[in-house]
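pasting for the record
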Amino acid sequence: MKINHYFFASLLLFLMACSTPQPFVFKGIKSIKIEKASFGKNIFNAKFEYQNPNNFKLTLKNLDCSVYINDQFLTKYNLDSVYMIPANSNFELPAKMEMELSLLLKNTVDIVFNKPMKISVDGSATITKGIFTKTVPIHFQTTQQLNLKEALKL
């Protein structure tokens, strides 16, 4: 009879430890630098800041998102590297993004005058905890200024 109690208690503890991971919380763009500027494709290196609301660490295996500024598509953001995400903390992920000059020109006035812009990120992330893998949706939105002076520093 005691074996059944131990088994039930162990099973309950195991199921509680395997709680469903919550999606990350987007905090904003921490930094952005222009790697290549041209009349065609422009390459930007950015650091996106997120928060892990879970009380356990996770492994990020894949990130596939679309980035919008003021509700207009800007670029795709893909990350195929593996990152260890600490529990209950903020973390940064690198982003290398290519975008056409024509897409940037739609927001030139807001960028030049350093006006706040609505930044949205939509997509999915594949995260793992132990042997369990889950794809979680990503839908973030924030209002932020993009500092052109800082982006132009080499």
